[in-house]
Amino acid sequence: MNKILLMILQRFGLGLLTLFVVSIIIFVGVEFLPGDIAEALLGQGASPENVAALRHELGLDRPAHTRYIDWWAGVLQGDLGTSLANRRDIAELITFRLSNTLFLALTAAAISVPLALLFGILAALYRNSLYDRSVNVVTLGAVSAPEFLTAYVLILYFSVKLGWFPSLSNIDQDTSFIDKLHQVALPAITLMGVILAYMMRMVRASIINLLASAYIEMAHLKGMPKFRVIVKHALPNAWAPIANIIAISLAYLVVGVVVVEVVFIYPGLGQLMVDSVSNRDIPVVQACSMIFAGTYILLNLTADIVSICTNPRLLHPK
Amino acid sequence: MKKSKIEQIIHQDIILKQALSDPRVTRRDFLAFTGAMGMTATMGGALWSNRALAATPKRGGHMVSGLNDANTGDSLDCGLFNATYMICISRAFRDSLVNVGQDNSMEPALAESWEASPDAKIWRFNIRQGVEFHNGKSLTTDDVVASINKHRGEDSTSYAKGVFSGISDVRVDGNTVIVELADGNADCPALFTDYHFNIMPSKDGVAESLSSAGTGPYLLKEYNPGVKTVLERNPNTWHPDGGALADSHEVLAILDDTARQSALISGSVDVINRPALKGIARLKNVKGVNIVDVASNLAFTHPMRMDVTPFDNMDFRTALKLSTPRQEFIDKVLFGYGAIGNDQPLGPGFGSYDASLNVEYDLDKAKHHLKKSGHEGVTIDLSASNTSYGGAMDAAQLFQQHWAKIGVNTNIVQEPQDGYWNNVWNVKPFCTCYWGARPVEDMILSIAYLSSSPWNDTVIKNARVDELVVAARGELDAAKRKAMYQEVQHIISKEGGTIIPAFGTDVAATRDTIGVGEQIGGGWEMDGGHYLKRWWNA
Questions:
Q1: A54 vs B contacts (CB less than 8 Å)
Q2: Is the pLDDT of residue B29 over 60?
Q3: Among candidates B59, B78, B67, which has minimal Cα distance to B229?
Q4: Which of A14, B80, B449, B460 is surrounded by the fewest CB atoms within 10 Å?
Q5: Interface contact flag, A152 B258, Cβ < 8 Å
Q6: Is the CB of A279 less than 8 angstroms away from the CB of B418?
Q7: Pair B318, B353 in one domain
Q8: φ, ψ dihedrals at A299, nearest 5°
């Protein structure tokens, strides 16, 4: 057990190092983009004096490395700073949006993961059957359609024609849980279309892979029912790849859904990040990318832990 | 249907539209008119009903709008406003000194009245008494001075610094704020209708730009930049009639065109701005949806730098102007929502607009001028980007084809959106651009057409234009000013370095439960940015 703890600590340390590297890359990247926030905010009518005055007011006339170090100094004290564009507290800006992003991601995952497991197991059980083929075709079809298309089609039928769900996910702090679920239904279904196929096929493939093993044949020979063989014998050994694909899908749900956010006007982190990049609002870009990078690192770590814990051979290496 | 029949119907439609947009038309005139056209009473009645509905303002109710032109980086700092969303919000919770009315006249707001010295150099604005900000602070002349000074001085970060640069001094005299100008300007009150100019509470002589306390008819209940804003009626308003019709508003930022449109069709929102023009013919036919369009002074400009060859040659410029397809530009790029422009920047919304100006499409004349310029067969670069206006890339291709007909080869350079206004506009010899509407002629001419203007994007240096613009500014006699501005229009159209094929039309769409008034203000889209106060739940 100590070994696992040691590994977690090790990985955690590496994760922090990764975050540090990411922060440098992002900072340098945004610095390299043409124009800065003063020019971005003032737009067409900016005169040189205007831009200079705004730069000075925002502290952008200081050298880049000083600004970067100041930013870290703030972060280490738990202060993410204020947005350069609207002078609001970044922590406040992000909390609302992060909770929305997580809510949408978890809702989508809560629908998709059980479905993917069920469809995948059934597909493995009845492989090459009509069911297997049709579920593959449908889910692959869904993943091949761009998200905005799926979203527009859903809006057209379920919101404009039938009026069951709102086309806008107009949520705020006071929205009740049930109401929120109703509001995010269409975006969550759109996202399900994107991730279901990956997870389902991974479940199917890993189980089928194991079905050729000797111990599965033994189980068959014992006369166990097919479904029981898969759930009791095959699935526990298939968890490692499944956990990995779920982790990656979840990470995608947190960081990669800006298109869905735009179409459904969902106030998530993605839109904030995109706007901040185009405004060159570095502190906000940094904060968002730290969250995104942190999400990837944590989810990968979790996936690894799950795969080790579910595999006795990895848990007790000789 | 035979072609002639279709044409006849289109023609009737145009005449009807003109009749409907003419404020002098009464219901009786209208019915007589439709009767004369051979239309049945019910048809005419149906056409009238929307306007009739619109003619009876009603107080109360909640209105939800979806606006684009918003950003998560938006702030309450009025010096940085450059987009519709914030302009509309600020017009609802803050006030200005002077408002532009729906008939485009100057109306008193926080300035009860004003008077000018005979040379139009010293202006006295009498500030309304007994007005309170939403945080309970009383409005003082100091607040007004601080709000003006926000846009002046070296440290000012305001986008409107140029607009207020003519002010040499601001001081207080009792309840009056005295504004002194370096040169006489008869349009001085119009400066204070600029959307950057909000009256904010001040502290130690500095305006609190980020304060949510205004004096407007609405309280800013919730403000989440780039997401949504909630406004509620201010019970303690100075406006005698409440200053606004709907009791509360929810203004959502909806950047995606399709999302905005489907929100309107499904009834999630009552009002949207800028419906996608590509699909507007279909949107118009959706039951329960009205299209609201207003001619605007927004100009689609294509500045050529007159100090760069071949654009330094007047014959060459004339050749391009004569071979620019104006109607086709309106039909194909603006989907019909525009008015013909004649290469001068003052739009049809101005009283001084000279409708007699007409740059005709004439390839023979164009060829003649091109030959005279000696630049036959020349290749020019046109820097374009859809950042300058939606459809600019399409417009560039349209121009390219027509200019090719007279023997000018156009190389379209697609410029990156980022940094367009810094690296391309006012830098490259020939590019696509737009100029938003301004309330008065002088604001447009002084910013971009004087030899000394920093944003003289065509590098025009015309002594007569300089002289006329400065003279018109200080001229209090309306007829004389009009004549001066008309002369300027002729000079710029003939000699200037910009191609302005059209002026824009501001388009919005509403549910038919929303009343908008018979006349809608220009100056900016959405009733000059005042729609939150002026439109109502019918």
A1: 157
A2: no
A3: B67
A4: A14
A5: yes
A6: no
A7: yes
A8: -70, -40
Interface of B with A in 358-397 (CB under 8 A): none
Residues 434-473 of B with CB under 8 A from A: 454-455
Low-confidence ranges of chain A (pLDDT < 70): 1, 43-46, 315, 317-318
Distance CA A41, CA A61 (A): 16
Query: Which one, of B221, B250, B237, B216, lies nearest residue B85 by Cα?
Result: B250
Domains contained in chain B, number: 4
CATH number for position B261: 3.40.190.10
Of B73, B255, B263, the CB nearest to A167: B263
B15 touches chain A (CB under 8 A): no
Q: B263 and B409 in one domain? A: no
pLDDT at B14: 41
Q: Which CATH number goes with the domain that contains B145?
A: 3.90.76.10
| pLDDT 10s digits, B200-226 | 999 988 888 889 999 999 999 999 888
Of A43, A53, A83, the CB nearest to B157: A53
Quick one: B166 and B269 in the same domain?
Answer: no
| Structural domain harbouring B19 | 5-54
Predicted ipTM > 0.90:
no
Evaluate the CA torsion angle B159, B165, B171, B172 in order and state its sign: negative
Same domain for B485 and B423, yes or no, is yes
User: How far is the alpha carbon of B257 from chain A, nearest alpha carbon, in Å?
Assistant: 9
**A11 CB burial (10 A radius; 0-12, 13-18, 19+):** middle
Determine whether the interchain pair B228/A172 forms a contact, defined as Cβ–Cβ distance below 8 Å.
Answer: yes
pTM over 0.80: no
A170–B73 C-beta distance less than 8 A = no
Q: What is the pLDDT of residues B262-281, one digit of tens each?
A: 889 888 899 998 888 888 88
Which of A39, A86, A94, A186 to substitute to test the interface with B, most B CBs within 10 Å?
A: A86
Return the CATH number at B429: 3.10.105.10
| Interchain contact B228–A (C-beta under 8 A) | yes
Listing DSSP states for B205-274 in one string gives TEE-TT-----SSEEEEEEETTTEEEEEE-TT-S-TT-S-SSSEEEEEE---HHHHHHHHHTTS-SEEES
Q: Are strands B338-340 and B498-511 parallel, antiparallel or unpaired?
A: antiparallel
Same-domain pairing of B302 and B277: no
Residue bearing tokens 């601080």: B146
**By the CB < 8 Å criterion, does A61 face chain B?**
no
Q: From the CA of A219, how many Å to the nearest CA of chain B?
A: 54
Interior angle at CA A283, CA A280 and CA A286, nearest 5: 95
